[in-house]
């Protein structure tokens, strides 16, 4: 499930800077950085001269994020500076964890074990693939924390909108296919078990319903005004009553002999990709970030995110089917380049996966397609979401005008018909 915070401009998190900075002092210390850099550089004589916790951080579902500048010395140099991103388990003002769940543990496991295995696999065949920023340090004790190199210093940023050029989007999709292929190879050929990556946000049904029920309710009100589409209202209501079960089933690994599984990034939308453009504003370099929701299961889990990477034409269409074919070609090519000796899943196999594990697309479409038509220059986070003073619950301030934007309306109407034909509604 996409995280709203990752789809919004970076500045929306700054209002929480003061509280988070106070909490950070409990675990971001010179001692921590000395230990981290000593481990990273294999140098015991690290001395921290100064460090600055900078603005521009964000907060995700299971981590608090800071950007830090560290000045230090070692026996090999007088002065060095390291720019890092620090991710830690979110805490309250007493330093107690505020989120219970394995998401942060997932990311530490990815950075310390799984991603190195992927990189080593490709390097055996002379291929260098950039799956994530370089790890500086990660530990569970005395508090779960990850420190990675800050790519923003090198001109990387997180895009807000899909890429203008299809070829740029295809570069991302090729990298995704390589990621999936590495996990499939290691699972099938080397017997690596990825089943520990099993947490689905749909296990927390109250969280999912609390976050997304409001826009669905508003959408159902809008449907009452769309001639010929009113019969979808009870279908969507029934769908939302089962959303936890639908989501869990969509993200449950296939049993042996039925489909196939890969390790999915799990949250691969546009805000979880760091990109660097050249002087012509074409994609030059990029990497993935935020592996908290990585999950072993159908490749459909990640492929369902591809639409968020594709620019829509004047009619709101995207070349999704063409890109699925391209993904499969690159997946097969990656496996062949690694010397994979077993049968490679076919394009038919992939399309069956997309059909069998695609029902969450109904919710994702209703909630996230309208966000494509929000003008972030005139609407901010507070405009989009309101807090009910009586209940304390957060609700989405979707208006009829957003859902009724001509292209948005056309997209959603086509999606509803397609979802019905596929048996998802």
UniProtKB/TrEMBL annotation:
Highest taxon listed in the record's lineage:
Eukaryota
Checking InterPro entries in the record gives: CHK_kinase-like (IPR015897), EcKL (IPR004119), Kinase-like_dom_sf (IPR011009)
Q: Which Pfam families match?
A: EcKL (PF02958)
Q: Which SUPFAM superfamilies match?
A: Protein kinase-like (PK-like) (SSF56112)
Q: Which segments constitute the CHK kinase-like domain?
A: 146-337
Record's protein name: CHK kinase-like domain-containing protein
| Organism encoding this protein | Pseudolycoriella hygida
């Amino acid at each position: 499930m996409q995280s709203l915070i990752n789809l919004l401009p970076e500045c929306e998190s700054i209002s929480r800077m003061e509280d988070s900075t106070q909490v950070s002092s409990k675990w971001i210390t010179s001692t921590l950085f000395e230990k981290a850099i000593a481990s990273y550089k294999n140098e015991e004589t690290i001395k921290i001269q100064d460090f600055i916790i900078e603005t521009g951080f964000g907060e995700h579902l299971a981590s608090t994020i800071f950007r830090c500048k560290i000045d230090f010395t070692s026996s090999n140099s007088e002065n060095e500076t390291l720019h890092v991103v620090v991710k830690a388990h979110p805490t309250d003002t007493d330093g107690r964890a505020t989120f219970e769940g394995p998401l942060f543990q997932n990311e530490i496991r990815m950075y310390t074990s799984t991603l190195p295995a992927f990189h080593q696999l490709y390097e055996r065949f002379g291929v260098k693939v950039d799956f994530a920023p370089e790890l500086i340090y990660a530990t569970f004790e005395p508090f779960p924390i990850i420190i990675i190199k800050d790519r923003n210093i090198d001109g990387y940023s997180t895009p807000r909108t899909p890429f203008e050029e299809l070829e740029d989007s295809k570069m991302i999709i090729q990298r995704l296919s390589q990621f999936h292929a590495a996990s499939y190879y290691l699972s099938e050929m080397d017997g690596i078990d990825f089943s520990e990556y099993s947490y689905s946000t749909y296990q927390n049904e109250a969280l999912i319903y609390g976050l997304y029920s409001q826009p669905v309710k508003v959408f159902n009100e809008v449907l009452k005004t769309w001639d010929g589409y009113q019969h979808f209202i009870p279908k969507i209501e029934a769908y939302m009553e089962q959303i936890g079960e639908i989501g869990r089933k969509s993200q449950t690994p296939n049993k042996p002999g039925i489909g196939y599984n890969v390790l999915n990034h799990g949250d691969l939308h546009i805000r979880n990709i760091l990109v660097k453009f050249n002087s012509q504003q074409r994609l030059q370099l990029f990497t993935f970030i935020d592996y908290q929701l990585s999950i072993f299961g159908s490749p459909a889990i990640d492929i369902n995110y591809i639409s968020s990477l594709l620019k829509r034409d004047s009619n709101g269409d995207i070349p999704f089917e063409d890109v699925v074919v391209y993904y499969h070609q690159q997946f097969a090519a990656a496996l062949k380049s690694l010397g994979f000796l077993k049968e490679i899943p076919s394009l038919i196999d992939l399309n069956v996966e997309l059909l069998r594990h695609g029902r969450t697309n109904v919710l994702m479409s209703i909630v996230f397609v309208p966000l494509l038509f929000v003008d972030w220059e005139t609407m901010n986070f507070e405009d989009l979401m309101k807090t009910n003073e009586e209940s304390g619950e957060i609700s989405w301030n979707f208006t009829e005008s957003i859902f009724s934007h001509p292209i948005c309306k056309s997209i959603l109407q086509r999606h509803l018909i397609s979802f019905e034909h596929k048996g998802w509604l």
